[in-house]
Amino acid sequence: MVGPCIKNHIVYDRGRTEIMKTAIQSVLGLVIALSVILLVRVSIFSPPTTDDVEVLSPAPASVVQRLAKSLTFSTTSGRHLNPAAFRGMQDWMRAAYPRFHAVTSVERFAEHSLLFTWPGRDSSLRPILFLAHQDVVPIEEGTETDWTHPPFAGVVAPCEDEAGQCVWGRGAIDMKAALIGLLEGAESLAASGWQPERTLLFAFGHDEEVGGVGAQEMARALEKRNVRPSWVLDEGLLVTQGITPGITQPVAYIGVAEKGYLSLELVALGEGGHSSMPPPSTAVGRLSRAVARLEADPFPAKMDGLSAAMFERVGPHMPFGLRLAFANQWLLGSVILDKLTAKPSTNATVRTTQAVTMFSGSLQDNILPQRARAVVNYRIHPRDSISTVISRVRRVIDDDGVTVKPITSGLMSEPSKIADVDGVGFAAITRSIRSVFPSAIVAPGLFIAATDSRHYSGIVDDIYRFHPILMRPADGKRIHGTNERIRSDNFRQAVRFYETLLKEGAR
Fold it and tell me: What are the DSSP calls for 197-227, one per residue?
């Protein structure tokens, strides 16, 4: 006979077993349900269908020699400005592109910036504005002999590390390829007798690399005339290959916004004197603690707005594992952000970045500094603003002994508006990209640098930033760097892109 205690124990064990079985079944059910949700979402996270576009052959080889010629003019700006080089290049442009100059009128601003107008047949239609800049950055002193070919020789020669010919020289990428590409496309159309339906404007600044006074004057002139373009194209993001994780085919990113720009001066004061009798902490020490707090507390990273839109276009083309993650950001968003913020290039697309670029104290090693100064540069994400950045910096530093002031003598700009990814401009650029890069994935993106286009934000809502240059991982260091170059066949594709876009935009 089983006693009541043993019976109770058996009943208890059975009950506990049933509860555990029920719990396990519930967990398995949740796992299965979650798996189904994840798989269903990834199954519908697929590339959109695209319209068929006629694929064009590259422009004639002769365009390459004219790009090379443009590189022989050392049109550096700022304190290196060479007026004779600008005059020489503009004289050459008139001779090299006579039909373009015959169908357009030209105005000069700030001595060297040029605004061309090609009248359309229908003056009631809003014009399209194309931007490019004539100036290039100077060659860093001491690096002249590091160039495979002299930076202003305009040499067409083998690319060395890959098959094919390249055009070598300062400005080959940034941004005479766009300037000459636009001129080549427009010259070809003018020579054929083609006329635009709507007016086309070409604004070629001369000092973009140092702030863009020429662009500012041209923008003010258009604003006074009440000219409001339908959309604008400027330099910006590129056609990348081997850069987007998991994707081998080209990805063409169209910049639909650019980051704002702000530099803050941080200053801490202290008592001077001899370093043999120092206080517990100096002005440099106090300022160092402030900088350390900033670096320990970066601006938050988020997968929202433009960042989300970019991966909605690119994500469906990724391998299964990455596609699964991007299709289920509601669950795996933090994992994605960890990956993106681990690399400086992708980290910059999801947050406002800060970089301490200057730091100074006393002028001698045995003198206590009376004033310590640091400069922190911010590239502001569209979700933030100049005022919110300054407020957050002061809050994070949390020290009344450290003053925080914006440096207003240089470049300072708010983040741009976000252009319409469903707008006619985005569609025209997309069709033009596919006409020369048929296998390219096209996606919106955030341009992390500053362009002349910001000066035109008061007269147009939709500004697109795109440069039809194919960029591979090793090419990034060439922009503003030694051995800047562009592949000859890529430039011939770029000319066809601009020619197509002029026709697409003028409809």
Answer: SS-EEEEEES-GGGT-HHHHHHHHHHHHTT-
| Tally of CA atoms within 13 A in the half-sphere of 388 that contains its CB | 13
d(CA 230, CA 504): 13
Maximal C-alpha separation, the chain = 116
3-class secondary structure, 277:
coil
Q: Could you tell me if 320 and 42 are in contact, meaning their C-beta atoms sit under 8 angstroms apart?
A: yes
- Token match 């039909």: residue? 99
**CA-CA distance, 273 to 259, in Å (whole number)?**
43
Domains of the chain: total: 2
- CA 267 to each of CA 137, 181, 369, 410: distance values in angstroms, whole numbers, following the listed order: 31, 47, 12, 18
Q: What is the pLDDT of residue 14?
A: 62
234 in the same domain as 190: yes
List pLDDT tens digits, range 174-216.
999 999 999 999 999 999 999 999 999 999 999 999 999 999 9
Lowest mean pLDDT among 135-139, 327-331, 333-337: 327-331
Is 504 designated active site?
no
Catalytic residue list contains 208? yes
Whether residue 485 lies inside any domain: the answer is yes
Model pTM score: 0.90
Query: 135 and 208 in one domain?
Result: yes
Is 38 part of any domain? no
The one catalytic residue in 135, 235, 475, 484 is 135
- Marked catalytic residue, from 184, 187, 208, 217: 208
Q: Is 125 exposed, middle or buried (0-12, 13-18, 19+ CB in 10 A)?
A: middle
Q: Provide the pairing of β-strand 105-109 with 353-360.
A: unpaired
Same domain as 308, residue 205: no
